[in-house]
Amino acid sequence: MIAEAGTKEAAWDAAAAVPDPEVPCVTVAELGILRKVQLVNGIAVAQVTPTYSGCPATLAIELAIETALRDAGFEARIERVLSPAWTTDWITEVGRDKLRAFGIAPPQTGMGKAALFGCPEVVCPRCGSDNTQRISEFGSTACKAHYQCKACAEPFDYFKCI
């Protein structure tokens, strides 16, 4: 179903389609950082929660969402929402599947603060083996760690639990 132009659904669809600049295989909606889009006095207001306070892509994401809304015919405003803080549990199943297909191991769900005290079991996105090892705490971005699968020998990024 295609949303009618000028509706809240059309504004959501425009904003939700914006790809993440650091992980372009997923959208901001699939990552769960696009919280809400509402129409307030004719202005599309998008609420966005950054993945973490120092994320270098936050401004780029906000500008891309604003541009998408304006391109869809809306006046637009972005509201940065810091509470509650974003968690990897907000990544949708579709987003997790897309990360895996892109070669990035998605984070486990429900880890919460336990993720800070140990290394979770990381499954290779290529062959499905859990016989993996962390090579580096940081991968291609600060929110990912670099791993290698001992079964297929392929290196891959793991989207860290937050």
Globally, the shape reads elongated
Query: At the fourth CATH level, what is the homologous superfamily of the largest domain?
Result: Fe-S cluster assembly (FSCA)
β-sheet strand percentage: 15-25%
* DSSP helix fraction: 10-25%
Could you say how many structural domains there are in total?
Answer: 2
Largest beta sheet: strand ordering: 4-7-6-5
Pfam families: FeS_assembly_P, Zn_ribbon_PaaD
Protein name: 1,2-phenylacetyl-CoA epoxidase, subunit D
Concise synopsis of the structure shown:
Residues 9-71 form the MIP18 family-like domain. With 162 residues, the protein is an alpha/beta fold.
Describe this structure in words.
With 162 residues, the protein is α/β, with parallel strands linked by helices. The chain starts with 7 loop residues before the first helix and ends with a strand. It has a four-stranded mixed beta sheet. Strands 1-2-3 form a three-stranded mixed beta sheet. Helices cover 23% and strands 23% of the residues. The protein contains four helices and seven strands. It has two domains: 8-80, Fe-S cluster assembly (FSCA) (GMP Synthetase, Chain A, domain 3), CATH 3.30.300.130; 91-159, no CATH class.
Q: Notable features of this structure?
A:
four-stranded mixed beta sheet, 162 residues, alpha/beta, elongated, GMP Synthetase, Chain A, domain 3, single chain, 23% helix, 4 helices, 2 domains
